[in-house]
Amino acid sequence: MESQVINYILFFTLFVIGQSLVMIGSFISLPYKNLSMWESLKMSLPFVWADWLFLTFAIMLLHKHSLLTNTQFLFTLIVFQFGATLLINRFYLKQKINISDYVAIGLLIIAYIISELHLFSKLFGLPIPKHEDDKKKRDKEIKQIIKD
C-alpha cells in the first residue's frame, strides 16, 4: 500500500512538472506581437521537449502500476490544462477570468470526482471495471503484437 502511494506521488509530480512546462511553452510567446513563427517555435520548443521527457516517465508509471484508467488520465489532463490556462491568462497575460470559466472548471472537477469514485456505477449497482483488467488486456495486446 505504501509503495502504491509513492507511485501516485511520483506520477503526479512528474505529470504536474511536465504539464506545467508544456502550458508555459504554449503561452510564452503570446505577449510578443512581432515574433515570427520560427522565433515563437524556438521559444516554445524547449518546454515541449521537457514535457515529453517528464510525461513519458509519468505515463510509464501510470501503465506499469495501473494507477488510473485511460479515461481518468484524460480527465486529469483536461482539468489540469484548463486550470493552468486560467492561471496563465490571469497572471501572465493579465486577462480577466469570467464567472463562466470558474463554473466550467468546477464542472470539470465534479466530472473527475464522479469518474474517479464511480459514483453513478455505485448508485445504480453497475459493475466497476478494475485497473488490473486493463493492465492484463494491455499486456496481452503487447504480447500479441510482439508475436506477430
Q: What tags apply to this protein structure?
A:
single chain, 148 residues, mainly alpha, 6 helices, 0% strand, globular
The ordered string of helix (H) and strand (E) elements is HHHHHH
How much helix, percentage-wise, in residues?
over 70%
How would a textbook summarize the main sheet? none
Total DSSP helices: 6
Look at the helices and sheets and give the structural class: mainly alpha
What would you say this structure looks like, in words?
- With about 150 residues, the protein is mainly alpha-helical.
- The protein is built from 6 helices and no strands.
- The protein has helices at about 1-25, 35-65, 70-90, 100-115, 120-125, 130-145.
- Helix 1 (about 1-25) runs antiparallel to helix 2 (about 35-65) and helix 1 crosses helix 3.
- The longest helix has 28 residues, at about 35-65.
- Keywords: Membrane, Transmembrane, Transmembrane helix.
